[in-house]
Amino acid sequence: MTRPIDLVADVGDVLVTEEAIQAKIAELGRRIGEDYADRPLTLVSVLKGSLPFMADLMREIPVPVRIDLMEVSSYGGTATESSGLVRILKDLSASIEGEDVLIVEDIIDTGLTLNYLLRYLRGKNPRSLRICTLLDKPARRLVDIPVDYIGFTIPDQFVVGYGLDYQEFYRNLRFVGVLRPEVYTAAD
Ligand code: PRP
Ligand code: 7HP
Q1: From the CA of 109, how far away is ligand 2's center (Å)?
Q2: Could you confirm whether 109 is annotated as catalytic?
Q3: Per-residue pLDDT of the chain (188 residues; tens, 9 = 90+)
Q4: Distance between Cα 126 and ligand 1 center (Å)
Q5: Which of these is catalytic: 56, 109, 144, 165?
Q6: Residue 111 burial by Cβ neighbours in a 10 Å radius (0-12, 13-18, 19+)
Q7: In the chain, what is the greatest distance between 2 CA atoms, to the nearest angstrom?
Q8: For residues 151 and 96, what is the distance between their CA atoms, to the nearest angstrom?
């Protein structure tokens, strides 16, 4: 039987509040604005998880930016464990050759998704390629990823909200919270 989604009851501790997210994004936007003051920047959002972060971050960056969107999905794992196999569902819509590019991610967990994306995007010969992630979960890292901007470092817990999903739901929460293990242990 499919378990009904309950946006309130299924989420335990709030790990990052809406206020903390917005304050951190304002700080990241200022830093990025200073770092790219002299050169136009292309933000590449990694959908779907980074959708709210991208929308809020781009409006806090006080210098000219272009945006592009990629959609990638890992496959072959479980609902809470990445396999490292990555499929590109939507590619960039314009060339990034010679551009300064900042990848915008919601979370780095094992690092396998970004490891794949970095190699893929480096092959398109950008002038520079950096990473900005809202959340970093270093305890689970399987590959080393050079991360330039980190919002919050979080413990090894499965989180949802502010773009992050479990089986495609919970992305519309305004905060990041820990999904109660009983929600996914029965299903995984
Ligand atoms: C999630 C998240 C990251 C990736 C991180 O994407 O948005 O892209 O997993 O995990 P990793 O560091 O272990 O590779 P997912 O494939 O679930 O797609 P989504 O963004 O559409 O939720
Ligand atoms: C991917 C992902 N998606 C949602 N919550 C988490 O904690 C996650 N780690 N990696």
Answers
A1: 7
A2: yes
A3: 577 999 999 999 999 999 999 999 999 999 999 999 999 999 999 999 999 999 999 999 999 999 999 999 887 777 777 777 899 999 999 999 999 999 999 999 999 999 999 999 999 999 999 999 999 999 999 999 999 999 999 999 999 999 999 999 999 999 999 999 999 886 65
A4: 23
A5: 109
A6: buried
A7: 56
A8: 25
Report how far apart, in Å, the C-alpha atoms of 19 and of each of 7, 11, 15, 25, 170 are: 19, 18, 12, 10, 18
- Can you tell me whether residue 22 is helix, strand or coil? helix
Please say whether the beta carbons of 50 and 25 come within 8 A: no
- 21 phi and psi, to 5 degrees? -65, -50
Considering only CA atoms, which residue is closest to atom 3 of ligand 1? Answer: 107
Kindly state if the Cβ of 46 falls inside 6 Å of ligand 2.
Answer: no
Whole-prediction pTM value? 0.95
